[in-house]
Design brief:
The chain folds into 2 domains: 372 residues, Rossmann fold; 262 residues, Rossmann fold. It is 49% helix and 14% strand. It contains 33 helices and 23 strands. The longest helix has 29 residues. It starts with a helix and ends in a 12-residue tail after the last helix. Its EC number is 2.4.1.1. Belongs to the glycogen phosphorylase family.
Length: 812
């Protein structure tokens, strides 16, 4: 045992006194949270040091997971859980008159990510530590998150997400390990004894200062590291001469210019200065991360030529793909290795995960912008491209194919192509996604590098998304099948024999109902809206994007509303529809969709003639901590993206693990969920892959046909512009045009009828509570297959070639 209750209570009181000269009676909840967080970090410190020391002493191969996002959420509860002292802390604090759950609510969600990409990275870090895999995160320490979302008169309003306003108790600033990152300038090329050398001059220097956060493994001695970089000035950050002259803004403008690099997640890139800042961000953390890794490696005394045997860099989506070129630059310019040897080492070190098939997300940079900001790195990419194009031509003798596969073409650098060419592994994140990559989006590369391509279906950590988020369900599972599932989540399948057990199902229902009651109380307190815990909780929470089709969901709600207006006695189970999503500040259509959802909510919720049979609620400022509350009480999980557009999804897995029934297209990981649970335990609708691809290939889809031939669709679409929603007729004119004039890019109207029928099936299924609970139990039983522990085991074995390390606890 790490600590007993008596020791914990004494340690906590001492920490509170040491930090704030306060006792419990005179301390605020904020100070109590910060004292507890500081104490928990202290409890993990010995393990953290031992982990780092043992990795170094035993020359263990280590993984560095490079990602623009790490959506880690709150850490207090998960750290206490993983240290296996949750009951001790909860009971000890209770005896001191403090509620642990209330302290967890004090913690700000870390503003380090936005959606599934960042949450996946966080789950992976948790799984690596819990499995004893030597794996660390590398990213940016953003001063502000994407934004804090407020809904004002139905519109999204963005305000700064100042998540660091109370500090960050979990991080350790390591200014002694700072790295210099260089931007701009010129490159001088010289030749001596037949060898070229390159000198980078007149560059702008930025100091990258690392902030380390411990990633605590579950009930083991492993504590890995998430290292995030903050941009700071090297020399002066204050111009005293300008200040003395009254030029106050000029006195600090250099400091602010530098610090803007790590100021905010995803700055608006609709203008050129935003694009430059995004590229700066990507190079900043990649360069700092790689230099730091190589510096640590060289301290071991091993030759640089062997680095690929000890280091694995994983590129999470295209944002860090510049790592390929930067690693080459370091090996060639700073370590003086010849090109061919450096290239072989680079491709063995690098691995790449592709997360999308949307062209807009397969990142490209203009040559002009890139060359000016990163002149030497551009030269490296140019050389990589030239050599690769030569290989392609030698194989195919086809200039058109060379042009299609070129990393640099048509004035742009294709970063996904750079990542593919420069990595030994390229993986998709669901079977369907990988299949589409190989057969369509990246088919040329798959033909050229068939050995590189593989699939690793995403996963979620059951420790946060079941054990922490839904403790009563966790207790029921343990009481029913024992504890083996906690460390081997695939053992959840043992629940399958209880899916028809009425006693088990009754307990499952009671837990879900209590979760719904608690959430309804929270909604009443925050929004002033009364919702019925006995209604179906139908939930769609995810990033707001046209392909995720929140619009389809809204259209079904309007259809149901109009049916109730026509027949108030319509026999339906009352239903509460929840939405949660942030729209990118520059994404106009998404922001209009949020306004539409809130307009429909206002219309429906205030219409007494429908007898409260449906309610609609947009959950403001969706976050990890909010997800931990809504997911355990969801009855229906909306996974309704246009088939072939969602790479995987992980929300689908979280809802499944908590017993929600999925209504879904056969897209992303929905396909694999369907394969596991079978037709009877998921509600499938919509076009299949081949139908979508045929429409896109032949360009013969006609949205107007569905508008003109389905009176329900016509009524709904017309309501966007006829004033019947209670807003000016012009309010949703752009959505109307998007559907008809722009031909409904993601087939909302085509799938509408099938979606309505699927929702009708949900209504009928829910009426048979025994059957519904059986479906719920089956979903929970199969959810263990989607644990990120399983995913990480596959990454470790098949891509990274690393083994778990049993960290020995040594006390000083």
């Amino acid at each position: 045992m790490l600590v007993d209750k008596k020791t914990f209570k004494n340690d906590f009181k001492k920490k509170l006194m040491t930090l704030y000269a306060e006792d419990i009676d005179n301390s605020s909840k904020l100070h109590q949270y910060l004292a507890l967080g500081s104490l928990i970090k202290e409890y993990s410190a010995q393990k953290w040091m031992n982990t780092n020391n043992q990795y170094a002493k035993e020359s263990r191969k280590q993984v560095y997971y490079f990602s623009m996002e790490f959506l880690i959420g709150r850490l207090l509860g998960s750290n206490i859980l993983n240290l296996d002292i949750y009951d001790i802390c909860e009971e000890g604090l209770s005896e001191l008159g403090i509620n642990l759950e209330e302290l967890q609510e004090v913690e700000n969600d870390a503003g380090l990510g936005n959606g599934g990409l960042g949450r996946l990275a966080a789950c992976f870090l948790d799984s690596m530590a819990s499995l004893g895999i030597p794996g660390h995160g590398c990213g940016i320490r953003y001063d502000y998150g994407l934004f804090e979302q407020k809904i004002v008169d139905g519109y999204q309003v963005e305000i700064p997400d100042n998540w660091l306003r109370d500090g960050n108790v979990w991080e350790v600033r390591r200014e002694d390990k700072a790295i210099v990152v260089k931007f701009g300038g010129e490159v001088i090329q010289t030749e001596k004894d037949g060898k070229l050398s390159f000198e980078h001059i007149n560059y702008e220097s930025v100091l990258a200062v690392p902030y380390d956060t411990p990633i605590i493994g579950y009930k083991n001695n492993t504590v890995n590291t998430m290292r995030l970089w903050r941009a700071e000035t090297i020399d002066k950050d204050f111009d005293l001469e300008s200040f003395s002259k009254g030029q106050y803004s000029k006195a600090v403008e250099h400091k602010y210019s530098i610090e803007s690099i790590s100021q905010v997640l995803y700055p608006d890139d609709t203008r050129i200065d935003g694009k430059i800042l995004r590229l700066k961000q990507q190079y900043f953390f990649v360069s700092a991360g790689l230099k730091s890794i190589i510096r640590s490696y060289k301290k071991t005394g091993r030759p640089i030529e062997e680095i690929h045997n000890y280091i694995q860099v994983h590129i999470n989506d295209t944002h860090p793909s510049i790592a390929v070129a930067e690693f080459m630059r370091i090996l060639i310019d700073e370590e003086n290795l010849p090109w061919d040897e450096a290239w072989k080492m680079t491709t063995e070190v690098m691995a790449y995960t592709n997360h999308t098939i949307l062209a807009e997300a397969l990142e490209k940079w203009s040559i002009e912008l890139f060359k000016k900001l990163l002149p030497r790195v551009f030269m490296i990419i140019d050389e990589i491209n030239e050599r690769f194009c030569k290989e392609v031509f030698e194989k195919y003798n086809d200039l058109e194919k060379v042009h299609k596969m070129a990393i640099i073409a048509d004035g742009s650098i294709n970063m996904a192509y750079l990542a593919i060419v420069g990595s030994h592994s390229v993986n998709g994140v669901a079977k369907l996604h990988t299949e589409i990559l190989k057969s369509r989006e990246l088919h040329n590369f798959y033909e050229f590098y068939p050995e590189k391509f593989n699939n690793k279906t995403n996963g979620i950590t059951h420790r946060r998304w079941l054990m922490k988020s839904n403790p009563r369900l966790c207790e029921l599972i343990t009481d029913t099948i024992g504890t083996k599932w906690i460390e081997a989540p695939e053992k959840l399948i043992d629940l399958i024999v209880y899916s028809e057990d009425e006693n088990f199902k009754n307990k499952l229902h009671e837990i879900k109902q209590n979760n719904k009651i608690r959430f309804a109380e929270m909604v009443k307190a925050k929004y002033g809206i009364s919702i019925d815990p006995n209604s179906i909780f139908d939930v769609q929470v995810k990033r707001l994007h046209a392909y995720k089709r929140q619009l389809l969901n809204v259209f079904n709600i309007l259809n149901l509303y109009y049916k109730l207006k026509d027949d108030p006695n319509l026999d339906i189970v009352p239903r509460t529809f929840f939405f949660g999503a942030k729209a990118a500040p520059g994404y106009y259509l998404a922001k209009r969709t949020i306004k539409l959802i809130n307009t429909v909510a206002n219309l429906v919720n205030n219409d007494t003639t429908i007898n409260g049979k449906i309610k609609v609620l947009f959950l403001e400022n969706y976050s990890v901590s909010l997800a931990e509350k809504i997911i355990p009480c969801a009855d229906v999980s909306e996974q309704i993206s246009t088939t072939t557009k969602e790479a995987s999804g992980t929300g689908n897995m979280k809802f499944m693990m908590n017993g929600a029934i999925t209504i879904a297209t056969l897209d992303g990981a929905n396909v694999e969920i369907h394969e596991k649970v079978g037709d009877k335990n998921i509600v499938i609708f919509g076009m299949k892959k081949d139908e979508v691809m045929n429409y896109e290939k032949n360009k013969n889809y006609n949205a107007a046909y569905y508008y003109n031939n389905d009176p329900r669709i016509k009524r709904i679409v017309d309501s966007l512009i006829d004033g019947s929603l209670g807003v000016p007729k012009s309010e949703f004119e752009d959505i109307y045009k998007y559907l008809l004039a722009n031909n409904d890019e993601f087939f909302v109207l085509k799938d509408f009828d099938d979606y309505v029928e699927a929702q009708n099936r949900i209504n009928l299924l829910y009426k048979n509570q025994s059957k519904w609970l059986e479906m719920s139990a089956v979903n929970i039983a199969y959810s263990g297959d989607f644990s990120s522990d399983n995913t990480i085991k596959n990454y470790a074995k098949e891509i990274w070639h690393v083994n778990p390390v049993n960290i020995k606890l040594k006390k000083n």
